[in-house]
Amino acid sequence: MGSAGRGLACALIAGVASWGGVADDEGYVAPRGPGGVHPDLNGIWQALNEANYDIERHMARPSMGLRDGPHGPVPDLKTLYIGAVASVPPSLGVVEGGKIPYTPEALAKRDENRAHWAERDPEVKCFLPGVPRATYMPQPFQIIQGENALEIVYQWAGANRNIYSEDPGPAPVDSWMGQSVASWYGDTLALTVTGLNEMTWFDRAGNHHSNQMKVVERYTPTGPNHLHYEATIEDPETFTEPWKISMPLYRRMEQNAMLLDFKCVAFVEELMYGEWRRNPLPR
Amino acid sequence: MNRHPLSAFLLAAVLATAAAADIPRTADGTPDLSGYYDVATLTPVDRPQIFGDNAFLTVEQAKEIEERAARAMAEGSADQPPDRGAPPVGGDGSPGAAGNVGGYDSFWIDNGERNFEIDGKFRTSIVYDPPNGRRPAMTPAAQERAKARRSFWRENTGTAWWLENDGPGPYDDVELRPLAERCLLGFSSTGGPPMMPALYNNHKRIVQTPDHIMILTEMVHDARIVRMNADHAPGEVRRWLGDSVGHWEGDTLVVDTTNFNDTPALGLATRDLHVVERFKRLDEETLLYSFTVEDPNVWEAPWSGEYPWPATDEPVYEYACHEGNYSLGNILRGARRLEAEALAAGAE
Question: Which of A171, B40, B174, B333 lies 20 to 30 Å from B228, alpha-carbon distance?
Fold first, then answer.
């Protein structure tokens, strides 16, 4: 890595550290991965935060799905029966500055999404999570970094990415996980993600985007068992300016850590198709 | 993550002295299997009866099969009249997977244009052991299961024919539909193991590290992560594509897979399925993929097959099956409609 590359990597880390208070070691130099050039990002990683509930700064809420009660919001019918299990834990948020810079129309849509959470959140139907949400779903993912190729496999819904080492040009069609092009800036892996469809969300709080979204993700090792993750989001149809999320990712330390199956497609069949059984169960 | 630099060093030393053929290798000397592959082939899994015990096609036979496939593809790709109506009730008599109401035309089919060759000879089947090129006899229990499964298939008559039978009908519940229809796995054991060619979406991607080898099958975005030099997961861990561990035997990657769930991708196989696969790089452009299948609940003997995986410059695209699965709901709704019509007709 040239000194310019290292300088850039350090600047990126420093910029983020000043915001998130992440204890990054700017002097950390990761072991080299296969091929000996780039840092070794191989491993099973997981976010440890509340981002999948709501990426914005928020206080705890009674439920992911709310309705008006006589004295304030109460759980809606879809979530009522699981009580505290449906509640939303608080978070300082992973959005730099705390708030997403929505256009007024997009903000109204977000609020409407939130009011219809169970019907609209693609996670409920086990749809592919999209980027960046896949990163902070509450399940591990694995980076497979070969000498000249890279893939990320997520336990959640068995999702994975379409990651190119060289830019093949615009994606032929929009997709749930998008088209990613990898490049290295010093010890930082950058994935530029385009070709994303408009059907994924950022979280369980209705935060959304259009198919014009471009995400630039950065993965930087900050210690043997930590990556610093950030994603810059641009979507002029939905946001007034680019914005950024950041968070640490943690290595799953279990000696026997491995991804297991979470093909939730089977788990949502009763929800999606149960009413069309020959003898439907009570609903 | 490579936490065993010494063993990696030793491996590199061993491989360096092997002075093997001129194939792509990683920095430590291991054969490099990474890349994109298109495993489509016209050669079937089991040897067609017309070839008897003959393991090989003549060049003329291979050419004839390829020309026939090309003709069928061209005919099936012909423009359809844009103002054509719906097929008649009960179907239009056309054969195929769509149950004679018209489904895929050739635009959607991508099952290869060539028979595969190994050592310069065209094969009549992927299966090479037993030597007759056909999967061995099934156990009586497996034959019963196959029979029960077949009873669920019938030519589409446009009526709720299953109401005439005792027992469950094929469309009673979503869980009775095939796994591919439910977007739980691709069909034809495309994700495997063993990984077989299918009617379409035959692309694979391999990404290789010293500790893990990922094999991504396009349909249905199923990624197998082979853990190198590791023990199998505990027996309670069951997986759709099994638990795969691998090691190198010389220049051949050997992958051992057990711990399947009750419904592996390979038709009729059970949770006791055991598959051993071998990946060998033949040259810059080709892997040879071979496998041995064992499941005493299904087959009286183990069986083995092999076929080459040619590299492709086409990528693996996202196969978002469940997200766009309008068919599954329509199949169930259609069955309820036919049942309601039968009920109404009976009441008249």
Answer: B40
Residues of B with CB below 8 A from A225's CB? none
With an 8 Å Cβ cutoff, is B311 touching chain A?
no
Of A149, A159, A258, nearest to B207 by CB-CB distance is: A149
β-bridge partners, A191: A182, A217
Q: Report the pLDDT value the prediction gives residue A215, as an integer from 0 to 100.
A: 98
Categorise residue A53: left if φ over 0, alpha if ψ from -120 to 50, beta otherwise.
alpha
Task: Closest CB to B221: pick one of A43, A146, A160.
Answer: A160
Question: Hey, is the C-beta of B109 within 8 angstroms of any chain A C-beta?
Answer: no
- What pLDDT does B95 receive? 65
DSSP string, B170-202: TTS-GGGS-TTTTTSS-STTSSSSSP---SS--
What distance in Å separates the CA atoms of residue B337 and residue B160, rounded to the nearest whole number? 9
What's the rounded Cα separation, in Å, for the pair A50 and A213?
Answer: 23
B232 CB near a chain A CB, below 8 Å? no
Chains A, B: CB contacts within 8 A come to: 127
Instruction: Specify the residue for token string 């193991």.
Output: B193
Q: Contacts of residue A164 in chain B, CB cutoff 8 Å?
A: 315
For the segment A182-201, what is each residue's pLDDT rounded down to a tens digit?
A: 999 999 999 999 999 999 99
Q: Could you say which of B208, B225, B332 has the minimum Cβ distance to residue A146?
A: B208
Q: Is B213 helix (H, G, I), strand (E, B) or coil?
A: strand
Residues of B in contact with A142 (CB under 8 A): 212, 225
Gap from B341 CA to chain A (nearest CA, Å):
14
Residue found under tokens 């035309």 = B105
Nearest CA of chain B to the CA of A252: how many Å?
A: 12
Instruction: For B225-264, write each residue's pLDDT tens digit.
Output: 999 999 999 999 999 999 999 999 999 999 999 999 999 9
Query: Least CA distance to B329: which residue of chain A?
Result: A273
Q: Look at A159 and B21; give whichever has higher pLDDT.
A: A159
The distance of Cα B299 from the centroid of its chain, to the nearest Å, equals 18
Helices (H) and strands (E) in chain A, counts: 5, 11
Q: Which of A127, A149, A259 sits opposite B323 (nearest CB)?
A: A127
Q: What is the pLDDT of residues B75-128, one digit of tens each?
A: 888 887 889 888 777 677 776 555 566 667 788 899 999 999 999 999 999 999
Q: Does residue B189 come out as left (phi exceeding 0), alpha (psi in the -120 to 50 range) or beta?
A: left
Report ipTM for this prediction. Answer: 0.90
| pLDDT the model gives residue B19 | 45
Task: Give how far Cα B210 sits from Cα of A118, A217, B287, Å.
Answer: 43, 26, 18
pLDDT, tens digit, 9 for 90 and up, residues B177-214: 999 999 999 999 999 999 999 999 999 999 999 999 99
pLDDT at position B258: 98
